[in-house]
Amino acid sequence: MIGIVQTTPAQPASEIVVQRPDAHPAIRSSGHTLSTFLIGFGTLLLLFTLVRMLRKSRSRLATAQEDPREVIAHHRAVHNAAREPLDSVMAEANELAVRLAKILDAKAARLELLIEQADERLAQMERISPQPTHAAWTSSPSPQMPGVGSIERQVLELAEKGCDSSQIARRVNRSVGEVELILALRR
């Protein structure tokens, strides 16, 4: 420890007095206050840590003391609660799929009926009007052909030139279906 040496010019060296720092009241009180503060802070920190550890151990003990069946039942309840919205969405999706399948089946049946009716009408038309020979419909249609109007003539001429039904429909201002029907009736 370092001491404070006080000498006066008249004192011989044998009478030099060495004083210790803790002997001075101002130094002793500030050092004592700091050490007391540090000890108190450390004690509070230690108590806080111990209390926290006790709380954690109590919560672990409370969890460990629960019946495993109750824990499993709780987890199942949570799982089922999360699963319920998914089940309802799946049920709605299945219902929608069934409804759409029924609608598609009905439309397919209606389409088949319409095709049958169109085939019957074509058969009736073929029986009523004589079939042109192969040479007659491959050559250009003549204005003298019975039952051929100007639109039909234009459609047949454009078809012989190699135009498809959509191009012919645009040129003669008719629908594609009408053009295809004219072409189908002439084949």
Description:
With 187 residues, the chain is mostly helical. The protein folds into 3 domains: 65 residues; 62 residues; 55 residues. It contains 6 helices and 2 strands. It has a two-stranded antiparallel sheet with strand order 1-2. The radius of gyration is 54 Å and the shape is elongated. About 7% of the residues have low confidence.
Which terms would index this structure?
2 strands; 3 domains; 187 residues; 6 helices; mainly alpha; 73% helix; elongated
**Distance between the terminal alpha carbons, to the nearest Å?**
126 Å
How many DSSP E strands? 2
Secondary-structure element series: EEHHHHHH
Strand order of the largest sheet: 1-2
Summarize the structure.
The protein has six helices and two strands; from the N terminus they run ββαααααα. The chain has helices spanning 25-64, 68-128, 134-138, 150-160, 165-172, 176-186, and strands at 4-6, 17-19.
SSE order and pairing:
Elements: E1 4-6, E2 17-19, H1 25-64, H2 68-128, H3 134-138, H4 150-160, H5 165-172, H6 176-186
Antiparallel strand pairs: 1-2
Helix pairs in contact: 4-5, 4-6, 5-6
